[in-house]
Amino acid sequence: MPEKKEKFYLTTPIYYTNGLPHIGHTYTTVVADVVRRYKRMRGYDVVMTTGTDEHGVNVERAAQKAGVPESEYVAKMADAWRALWDELGIPADEFVRTTDLKHVRTVQWLFKLCKENGYVYKGHYTGQYCIYDNAFVNDAKPGDNCPDCGRPLETITEENYFFKLSSFQKPLLDFYKKNPSFIQPDTRRNEIISFVEGGLRDLSITRTTIRWGIPVPGEEPHVFYVWFDALTAYLSAVGGPEYEKRGYWPADLHLVGKDIIRFHTVYWPAFLMAAMLPAPKQVWAHGWFLMDTAKMSKSKGNVVLPRPIVNMLGMDALRYFLLRDVVFGQDGNFSYDALVTRYNSDLANGLGNLASRTAALIEKNFAGKIPKPDALKPQDEVLAKEAQAAIGEVLENFDKLSFARALETIWTVIAAADKYLTSEQPWALGNSEAEQSRKSTVLWTTAELLRIVSALAFPVLPDSAAKVWTLLGQSDALGKFELDGLRWGQLAVGTSLGKSQTLFPRVDKTEAIERIEAMANEELNPTPAIPAPAASAPTATGTSAAAAAAPAVSDKIGIEDFAKVEMRVGQIKTAERIVGADKLLKLTVDIGTEIRQICAGIAQYYEPESLIGRKVAVVVNLAPRKLRGVESNGMIVAASVGPEGRPVLTGFHEEVEVGARLK
Ligand code: ME8
Asked: Which residues form ligand 1's pocket by a CB distance below 6 Å?
């Protein structure tokens, strides 16, 4: 009988459905996937949960705006989130939606337990309420205006159920003391302890002014409010009331961003204690990815999307960058420049180059079979020792979620192997017996090092590490390889190399960034499908030539869709090149009501001076975005001509007023 595997349960937050995933959400889900793969390689039976948080006023409003029922709106959004995680190769084992029946039942059950144990009571909640938007505005003071519609708020009192959070100050502080690794990293732990020491107020956990929520049984119109509903999803995903049957609760690890640490380390264990259920073992709060030093948000126009990066560089490159560039737990600035630089240096020139060089030399000198090592020289032994030592170090760092350190160790070994090859020069050795034997030793050593490196890197680089593994002729699935058994010296002599594949083709930095940005712009502001002959279709050129391809002219659209695009006559006031972006021009354009800064992908076809004073068509109601770090607030319309999509600016043969609308 095989030994029963120990279970390991980890989660990401349950993401809100009023938007789509950006790089911040992708970060948490990637980390969860890395931990999942790593734990599986350490012999655990792992379940990873992610999902969607689908209730509340924001969803009510978004659905209303879209003109569909809430249930339809959230079903579409949940599908989109799930589909993206699948596409990126980071699907959940359990995808939980807070509208799932199993979740509804779990929330109601948890509430019943808390109530039976005397931790829930009916009271009144007084807050500032917007009667136009039908919503309480948290943190507003009497006399404030609604942050959404700007109209005056009213002080309203409604009946709510309250959770006796105040009873849990001591139990929580005792719990933190007994479980010192419950909150990670330590800085966050200290913050939470001082917060709880400062005293806890009871928490309103139901609402009667919100419609779109889980009903409190027998107490309609009460519905559960935000966190009591959302946090419970972790338990619903693995059995809810029957959690003991599945055996994954308590969770081993909740991965969250620092924005929601308090809910996870104060409210959540308190709810569970009140219901006499086991609390999770650890909550790990990572930092934020910032863009231009601000937290990403769609309204600021500074979100980074995962798909364009993956299309350009591959998912492994994104995973590597997210985990290598920022110390887990700290904030980090996202930059395409740093992403592509790392890709070229660490992946293309580092791992990719070492693997292809080694394979080519074995192919050429040993007919593609792993050669037999002979007498060892000190430098061979030094490298072997370094690789062997890396195994322990990397595992230790993965255990601590110190991903950047783990990767740094792996890449130090790769650099050492590179240096070793360069100084041993196996390609310069001849065919005498002594030289052949030296060649065998050097190439076996390098290949063995690559085998170790690919096993260690697999949790972060699942596609490419598996390719190196196959290249080295290893037939078993790398994801199932047990890291505990990894030792230097296991590479079998005579193994035939697998098919060679390009791992990370080098890219031109400027070109790559422009293409990523163009794809991101297209995803954020899809080119409207304007019916027109394909070859001369007007195309928005606020992007590079890659995005300036003719738009898809598939379905016909109604006039109301066309009317959404606001185009006006603009006059170019200034034009200049952008350093480091050879396709872009930075323009200032008078659109009648204001002067706008707009970037246009026309630098290869128009001299800046030739544009001054020219009147062009401008799409003026696009959300602002950044191109190569420069704000662009609108798009210049141009035809896209020929196979390379040469932009040709629109013009007017009669006098037109600046600001006139194009219809
Ligand atoms: O808070 N950098 O959902 P949410 C790093 N529904 N991580 C980021 C990030 C950034 N810039 N932006 C978002 C909610 N994240 C609730 C959670 S859980 C029971 C309910 C990640 O859609 C990070 O993990 O706002 C953060 O905590 C989470 O997305 C917030 O997702």
From this structure: 13-16, 24-25, 27-28, 53, 230-231, 233, 256-257, 259-260, 288-289, 295-296
Q: What per-residue confidence (pLDDT) applies to 43?
A: 97
Residue nearest atom 18 in ligand 1 by C-alpha distance: 13
For residues 275 and 312, is the Cβ–Cβ distance under 8 A?
Answer: no
Tokens standing for 304? 């980074």
Which whole number is the average pLDDT over 65-73?
A: 94
Q: Which of 135-139, 341-345, 377-381 has the lowest mean pLDDT?
A: 135-139
pLDDT bucket at 580, cuts 50 / 70 / 90: confident
Closest by CA to 407, choosing from 507, 503, 340, 317, is: 317
- Residue 113 is predicted with a pLDDT of 98
Enumerate residues 6+ apart whose C-beta is below 8 A from 192: 176, 183, 261, 262, 265, 266
What residue has token string 């829930």? Answer: 120
User: Is there a contact between 256 and 184 (Cβ–Cβ < 8 Å)?
Assistant: no
> H or E segment at 540?
strand 538-540
Please give the distance, rounded to the nearest whole angstrom, from the Cα atom of residue 286 to the centre of ligand 1. Answer: 10
Yes or no: say if 45 and 2 are a contact pair by the CB < 8 Å rule.
no
C-alpha 458, offset from chain centre: 18
Residue 289 alpha carbon to ligand 1 centre in Å = 11
Q: Output b/e per residue, 361-374; b: 16+ Cβ within 10 A.
A: bbeebbeeebbebb
Tokens, residue 466:
């598996």
3-state secondary structure at position 561: helix
Q: Rounded distance, CA 510 to CA 583, Å?
A: 9
Residue having the nearest C-alpha atom to atom 3 of ligand 1: 15
- H/E/C letters for each residue in 481-512? CCHHHCCCCCCCCCCECCCCCCCCCCCCHHHH
β-bridge pairing 283-286 and 253-257: parallel
Report the pLDDT value the prediction gives residue 539, as an integer from 0 to 100: 34
Residue 565 in contact with residue 551, Cβ under 8 Å? no
The answer to whether the CB of 18 falls within 8 A of the CB of 52 is no
- What separation in Å is there between the alpha carbon of 13 and the centre of ligand 1? 6
Residue 183 β-bridge partners: 283
Sheet holding 203-204: strands in order across? 135-136, 120-130, 154-163, 203-204
Angle at 206 between CA 203 and CA 207, to 5 degrees: 120
Nearest CA to ligand 1 atom 21: 25
> Which ligand 1 atom is the nearest neighbour of the CA of 16?
22
- The pLDDT assigned to 555 comes to 52
